Amino acid sequence: MLGTFQKSYIRVEIEAAETAIRDSLLRPSQLKIWLWPQSFSPGLPEQLSEGVKFESWFGLIEIQYYVDVVGVNCLRVILSQGIDGFNEWYWGDGWVQSRLEGISMLPLNLGQTFSLLRLRDFLITKKSSRSTTSKISI
User: Fold this and answer.
1) 135 occurs within a structural domain
2) pLDDT per residue over 39-93, tens digit each?
3) What is the pLDDT of residues 112-127, one digit of tens each?
4) Is the Cα torsion angle 50, 30, 116, 107 positive or negative in sign?
5) Residue 36: inside a domain, yes or no?
6) pTM of the entire structure?
7) Residue 64: left if φ>0, alpha if ψ -120 to 50, beta else—which one?
8) Contacts of 63 (CB under 8 A, 6+ apart)
9) CATH at residue 48
10) By three-state DSSP, how is residue 91 classified?
């Protein structure tokens, strides 16, 4: 693999419930929204589970994923191709933390920061649209 070894640890506060954060990380239908402009391989299951393999593309760069661990509050994926390493996610009510380590030519810290900001914005938008819908209901 060409590139340099990089590692990044980021934790952000998010005004969202633990279940909303979990769904955003484990449900590919939601991943596809907040991880845009990445595109994902077709045929993903409704929810990620241990042993699932899939690919995503960031432009011409392919990243292969292997879901290694799925817990109540954690997710660990092994990465290969565009990034050789792993990404761990931990979450709870009001926070999410990501640890990314790998060899890549991509600027991993910048990408991780951008992804977490997109996740936070996605969850805020989702929460506000849900509260607007409930206010409109009669």
Assistant:
1) no
2) 999 999 999 999 999 999 988 899 999 999 999 999 999 999 999 999 999 999 9
3) 999 999 999 999 988 7
4) positive
5) yes
6) 0.88
7) beta
8) 55, 56, 57, 79, 80, 81, 82, 83
9) 3.30.530.20
10) strand
